[in-house]
Design goal:
alpha+beta; Ganglioside M2 Activator Protein, Chain: A; 6-stranded antiparallel beta sheet; 5-stranded antiparallel beta sheet
Length: 221
Amino acid sequence: MATSILSILLFSIIFNGVMGDLAPTNLLATRIGPCYANPSKEVTVSEMSLNTRLYDSSLSGMMNITNDVENGWVVKGTMQKCQDIRNLDTCDYFKTFTIISNGCDEEEENEEQEIYSMFFHHVHPRITCPIKAGIYKIVNYPIFTEDNYLIVAESKISTSVFGYTMRMEGYADTTRILCVEAYLQLLYIREYEERDDSSQKPTAEPSSEEERVASEEEEGE
């Protein structure tokens, strides 16, 4: 439940951002773990180990659920945009939205079920609804980060330090039970044109010994 939000986060950035010219980008997860400020106590997570690859990454870690969680839990996300992801003082509020509105709702299938069902498959022992208390191991949960189309104006602010933070908070009724933070660095994919050397005139070589000597004499003058 805690980290199954990352893929939804990426789609939220793509489709709910400010409109403008688009450019291919990757979002590199640099940290996923418990909230530094006001951490949750009902559901706690470790600092996640990130396996980073070019187009997708995966995470592994531990999760401790102290009490059973009844069906109907909610997960909300709050995002910030950061001029320099290394310095959180440069971050400004971006948006807040609901990611899962009725967790473990068994009445009908919906897209929300696909989110946490995929996550459950990467947890040992496997989680089922309703969620039971216990200590769980998250193993190689995938985070897909390829070709996220963000606006060029944002992408070109910095190709190395611009990014986003996201705080994911879970609630059972009105009780806050979960808080996880993710730091995402934006990488802008620059397209370089191949150099065309065909337009450059080749250096003329003397076609004979006489022409070579004459060329050397002109250079000597």
